[in-house]
Backbone:
């Protein structure tokens, strides 16, 4: 008999079926025992009338592996409207110890460090695994949206010869008899690849040796990067980003509806026209809303971003707000200045529910501009030989953005700590599991 | 006017269109000048009758960026059957120096090290970029095939606390005040995640500090990993692998037909039933074909694999041959022994055109078996605490495989050196570009 998923039971009422999965929970009532079996798609309730079988099952630990044949019966009272009667149960693996966390509870009853310590088991919890079903759907939506627009997927090296964007916060590697570094972002490579494919994207790890122990920092994260050539200006990049996020949320809805329901996630409001402020307008708005004097500010604080988030929701019914035109000196060397007012750049941030989610920009594309930008910042050209070669030999106007996958999910499910949306987080103190 | 791709010209005969791209080549004949414009999709021939314009263009270096409006004319002699007449040409970026390699030639006229040194420009060559269009299609095909079978995509950490599979060939990282390592494969994490999703895959970098300077070794590569739970045996894993490869080749055909033609690639012969040999049968076959005495061998040599490849093609019209049952002691500790003959394992290799392309296996799934396997190999359980926790709390029979993306492409296009199918290779001596 072919195994079916627990989520397919409703199509098989009246038939005998084969299920396989984990012993999620056993509840012994006075006259009947309910066994909940969990598989990768969902759970099923199995009704056990046979007292001898019930006694055998009571001796099993949760998470034991079972193969169950039984009859599918419609039962409006049962979860999902169906249950299994007359089961024949084969124990595939008998677990010897109770799990470190009770997986059948609606939420895990433990502190985050304990949950993370026991991630190999904790991730089996229905709510925990739903987070990473959304993560998978987010990657699918990102890629599918870009593939449909002729973007080519690339895989660029994570071992690099020099710190990507200059100096600090880079992990050093023993690379045979010399030093190498872990890539902080695929930025330079994705720009080079615009010279080849015009439109590229990458989904991969990025590494930041930031010694911050906060709920917002992890030292290895997944970066969803895109870069596009032959743009007019940064507004085209921002429009592409909004399209990509629409694709991400649509794919979540299509592929992970159960996970969304499990996590009680409301998909965000992303209007056709996302509210968009110039950096100087954003400062004025913050001043108006809070009375604070921010006229000399060269960046937005976390508090400022929250003010803008609240404003966007209130005035535009939007969970998102774009801010562009951050001062050029505050942004990375490859950021294109605003030709009209070069103090300001064509760099932007996308603020999602009051927190910066995505950074992006139009980039410089002329070789001479790069030489100047590096010189102004006192950065040596020797670390950028290959990168500069691309510009010396013709690059179109281009721009792009990077979305932090774990941060996107954390904001979406409103998790207070980014570690909750990271499978196996790496931070100042955590290298395992 | 909206820009169109060079590959769309045939649909616009008689119209005026806008193209953008790189000055690929300029050929001045006595009465006419031909300009070849390259964009991300292809090339277009532009005919210049105006001698003044021709003289202006002659002053430009190759790889300059151009925006060209002109009339599309059917011309059977022209490449693709169309060309552009009456062009108006705007120079977007005027390049100042000739490129380090002549990109218009059918193949790059340089040695591999020179091509790799100048990768940011060399990758623009039509043949070079075709390789990485196939690479993108391969990833798409891998993922799409698995997504259709309810596999969930995961992203597991590349910074790990201990060497994944024991000891050697691991890069050490300065991780704040201690040591960490670069992941050699997602093996342990993908197995853990079978406990969560039953079916998982990952596309990501893997790192091997092998100090070998050969055409077959690079130190960072892209691993296409899959793992599936509730299998009967390794034959199910092998069947899945064959399905995945069929998906990969089908996607190449659909999405990268031009690239296949450019590279003159014949898609491999992958019959419905892939020839499959037990390790001991493979040894006998090698002995029969070559007269060599290999009866005591515990592994297959490169020469043996070539013999098997030749045999599979000759006898079964197949570019692939499976060998399973490699001696258990020769395989990683998590490999499931053959229950009938535990000297042999349920580990397999897939040999593609005489070279090992994929390794896979059914894995151990019982906690006690892991304790024994580690003890037998003298490996400490302390390095595997999280991993072992998954097995202590119930794992189904499972197995999987890993395909090296660059190796798959190298065999497919019959490149003698794996660096040819790696965007920016990392090896003993190469860390840039």
Residues:
């Amino acid at each position: 008999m072919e195994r079916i998923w627990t989520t397919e039971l409703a199509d098989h009422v009246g038939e005998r079926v084969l299920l396989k999965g984990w012993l999620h929970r056993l509840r012994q009532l006075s006259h009947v025992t309910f066994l909940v079996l969990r598989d990768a798609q969902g759970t099923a309730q199995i009704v056990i009338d046979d007292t001898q079988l019930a006694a055998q099952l009571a001796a099993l630990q949760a998470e034991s592996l079972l193969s169950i044949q039984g009859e599918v019966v419609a039962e409006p009272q049962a979860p999902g409207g169906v249950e299994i009667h007359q089961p024949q149960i084969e124990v595939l693996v008998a677990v010897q110890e109770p799990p470190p966390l009770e997986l059948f509870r609606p939420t895990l009853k433990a502190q985050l460090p304990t949950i993370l310590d026991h991630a190999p088991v904790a991730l089996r919890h229905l709510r925990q695994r739903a987070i990473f079903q959304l993560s998978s759907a987010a990657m699918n939506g990102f890629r599918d949206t870009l593939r449909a627009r002729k973007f080519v997927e690339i895989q660029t090296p994570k071992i690099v010869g020099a710190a990507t964007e200059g100096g600090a916060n880079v992990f050093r590697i023993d690379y045979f008899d010399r030093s190498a570094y872990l890539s902080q972002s695929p930025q330079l490579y994705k720009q080079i690849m615009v010279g080849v494919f015009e439109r590229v994207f990458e989904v991969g790890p990025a590494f930041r040796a930031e010694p911050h122990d906060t709920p917002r920092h992890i030292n290895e994260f997944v970066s969803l990067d895109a870069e596009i050539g032959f743009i007019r200006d940064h507004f085209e990049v921002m429009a592409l980003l909004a399209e990509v996020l629409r694709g991400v949320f649509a794919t979540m809805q299509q592929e992970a509806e159960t996970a969304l329901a499990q996590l009680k996630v409301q998909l965000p409001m992303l209007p056709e026209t996302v509210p968009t402020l110039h950096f100087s307008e954003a400062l004025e708005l913050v001043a108006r809303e809070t009375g604070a004097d921010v006229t000399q500010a060269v960046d937005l604080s976390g508090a400022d971003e929250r003010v803008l988030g609240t404003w966007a929701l209130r005035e535009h019914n939007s969970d998102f707000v774009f801010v562009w035109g951050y001062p050029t000196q505050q942004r990375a060397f490859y950021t294109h200045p605003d030709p009209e007012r070069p103090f300001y750049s064509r760099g932007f941030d996308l603020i999602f529910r009051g927190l910066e989610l995505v950074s992006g920009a139009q980039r410089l594309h002329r070789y001479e501009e790069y030489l100047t930008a590096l010189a102004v910042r006192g950065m040596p050209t020797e670390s950028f030989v290959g990168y500069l070669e691309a510009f010396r030999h013709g690059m179109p106007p281009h721009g792009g953005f990077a979305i932090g996958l774990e941060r996107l999910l954390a904001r979406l499910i409103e998790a207070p700590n980014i570690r909750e949306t990271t499978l196996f987080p790496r931070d100042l103190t955590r290298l395992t599991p």
Observations:
- The CA atoms of residues 92 and 291 of chain B lie 66 Å apart.
- The first strand of chain B starts at residue 16 and ends at 28.
- Chain B is about 30% helix and 25% strand.
- Chain B has a mean pLDDT of 96.
